[in-house]
Amino acid sequence: MPIAAISYDILPGFEDEIGEIFANFQRPASPTVPGDDGAEVARILGTAVFIKNDTMVRFIEYEGDLTEVAKFMAAQPGVQAFERKIVPYLSKPRDTATPEGFVRTFTDSTMRCLTLLGSTRIAAG
Questions:
Q1: Does residue 24 lie within any of the structural domains?
Q2: Distances (CA, A) of 98 to 19, 53, 81
Q3: Residue 60: helix, strand or coil by DSSP?
Q4: What residue numbers bound the domain in which 60 lies?
Q5: What distance in Å separates the CA atoms of residue 61 and residue 92, rounded to the nearest whole number?
Q6: What total of structural domains would you count in the chain?
Q7: 3-state class of 96 per DSSP?
């Protein structure tokens, strides 16, 4: 269960405005991430966003290749609209206007995972 954490440097004091942008977020029609040949190369299992002061972090639980997830997200109308709407609230600009810029920004904003712990079920015998 890989999880990516994508950081955003934002202006403090705009949590409600940013929350409103997320409240109107248009999700992709499908969680399936197709490759160049149309076959599934990844799947987005879930997302969560946390915000405090000048930091926002989007967590993405996924299966497959994270770069393919980034390319898929770059092409989504809802993600493109979100990236445009968030610009006034950023303390550092993000180059997300093009697919290449989005993938580069996504990669550069991905936080290093220090640990990922999950629960393990033990079958009763």
A1: yes
A2: 24, 28, 12
A3: strand
A4: 3-109
A5: 25
A6: 1
A7: coil
Predicted TM-score of the model (pTM) = 0.86
- Is 11 within the bounds of a domain? yes
- Cα–Cα distances (Å) from 119 to 1, 60, 62, 100, in that order, read 11, 18, 17, 37
Give the pLDDT of residue 27: 87
* Rounded distance between C-alpha atoms, residue 64 and residue 51, angstroms: 27
Which CATH number characterizes residue 16's domain? 3.30.70
121: pLDDT confidence band, cut at 50, 70 and 90?
A: low
Write out pLDDT tens, residues 31-86: 999 998 999 999 999 999 999 999 999 999 999 999 999 999 999 999 999 999 99
d(CA 50, CA 35) in angstroms, rounded, equals: 29
* pLDDT higher than threshold 90 for residue 120: no
Q: What is the pLDDT of residue 18?
A: 95
Within a domain: residue 53? yes
User: Which of helix, strand or coil describes residue 11?
Assistant: coil
Whether residue 125 is contained in a domain is answered as: no
